Amino acid sequence: MDHVRIVEVGPRDGLQNEKQNVSTAIKLELIERLASVGLRDIEVTSFVSPQWVPQMADQAEVMQGLRRRPNVNYSVLTPNLRGFEAAVAAGASEVAVFAAASEGFSRKNINCSIDESIDRFVPVLDAARRQGVKVRGYVSCVVACPYDGAIAPEKVAHVAARLYELGCYEVSLGDTIGTGTPGSVRRMLNAVAARVPVNCLAGHYHDTYGMAVANVHASYEFGLRVFDSSVAGLGGCPYARGATGNVATEDVVYLLNGLGAVTGVDLDALVDCGAWISAQLGRENGSRVGRAVLSTRS
Ligand code: HMG
Ligand code: MG
Question: Where do the coiled-coil regions begin and end (predicted)?
Answer without folding.
Answer: none
